[in-house]
Structure formats: C-alpha cells, structure tokens
Amino acid sequence: MLTVAVLISGTGSNLRALLDAAADPGFPARIIVIGADREADGLAHAEAFGIPSFVVPWEAFESREAWGAELDAQLKVWRPDLIVLSGLMRLLPRDVVAAWAPNIINTHPAFLPEFPGAHGVRDALAAGASETGASVIVVDDGVDSGPILAQERVPVQQGDTESSLHERIKPVERRLLIDVVRRIAEGSLELGARPHDLGSPSAAGR
Ligand code: GAR
Fold first, then answer.
1. Which residues are tagged with the site Raises pKa of active site His (predicted)?
2. Which tens digit of pLDDT belongs to each residue from 164-181?
3. pTM score, two decimals?
4. What is the interface pTM, i.e. ipTM, of the complex?
5. Comparing C-alpha atoms, which of 37, 152, 149, 172 is closest to residue 102?
6. Ligand 1 binding site (Cβ under 6 Å of any ligand atom)
C-alpha cells in the first residue's frame, strides 16, 4: 500500500476528492497525513476523515529554508512514500525537494509548460488563450518545470472569469490526480530516477 502525505494551502477540494477515492478499500494508496503552510480551510477534511494533520506556518519562519526544514522534519515523522502538493502555494526549498525527489508530485491548473506559477488560471485568461488545461507533474527545484505525468486540455469559454474557469479545471485535475496516484501505487507509472543535480538522497527518502 502506497502511503501518501498531502500538502495544501487552501480549500483542499482536490484533496477531498483524493480522500474520497482513497476511502474505497480497493484503492491502492492511503493518505496518512495532511500538512499545510497555514490554518487552511482544507484541514477540515483531515478532521472529517480522522487523518492526522500538521501546520508549519509560513509566517513563523525567517526564511524559506527554515520553513522547509521544519516541513521536512514533520514529513520525516510520517515517512510517506509519496508527497502530493495539492494547492500548496509555496515553492519548496531545494533541500526539501532533494530529500524526497522524485516522490513529490504537484497539480497545476494549466497545460504546462504553459502558464506556470501561482496564477496559472489568471495568466491563461490574460493571454487570451482559447484553451488551457490541467497538469500533474513531478516536482523539481524549478517553478512547475518537472516531468509531466498527466495533462488534459480544458477550453476557455466566452465570458469566463478566473473563478468560473478554475472551477471547470478542478474536476479535470481531480480525475488526473486520482489516476496518477493509483498508477504510481500499482507500479504502472514510474516517477523516474532522482534528478542528478539534486544532491544525495536523504535517509528519510523512501
Ligand atoms: C488547484 O487548482 C491546484 O492545482 C492549484 O491550487 C488549486 C487548489 O484548489 N495549485 C496551484 O496553482 C499551484 N501552482 P483546492 O484547494 O480547492 O484543492
């Protein structure tokens, strides 16, 4: 059984979909802990499912590296096989990526490499794109630049707002995320070798 930690910043609607999927006894992965960088609304899903959670508040640390060191320490308590960034709106510091790579994946509301970053939906609209999409990628130490595991196009409709477009993208993200986690757990999707430039593996990796 693949053990999974999910990290969030927001409402956690994609997390919720993954929790619902994993509640099926036939699903080959189990969410063992949920973490956040703030008192995110989505932590309520952890409580509803009786899953442990932790918060490493971004504001409490002097630097990204200090925040990341505490996040890494929390993750090492649980030693998940896979870390899912599901709306975590912070870049992980290089050391944390190095410690867990390639076993960190991220969902993104655009068809990468188009529109990376924190405002993927807004940027697609601002560019006048006629279609955008959803992607699930392996996290590397760039911004949404890791290998693409799954992606699908979503058309932009006349009159779309950032919110209406994002709400149409999210169900696609959920479907892709659940399928990717399932395939990783079943062994039919490999996350690949550790990137060579990420340093030596941490003892707390897999
Ligand atoms: C999702 O669309 C996710 O892809 C996005 O935040 C949303 C979280 O929604 N992440 C990023 O944009 C990361 N660059 P949720 O909290 O309702 O699941």
1. 144
2. 999 999 999 999 999 999
3. 0.93
4. 0.97
5. 149
6. 8, 10-15, 42, 86-87, 107-109, 118, 120, 170, 173
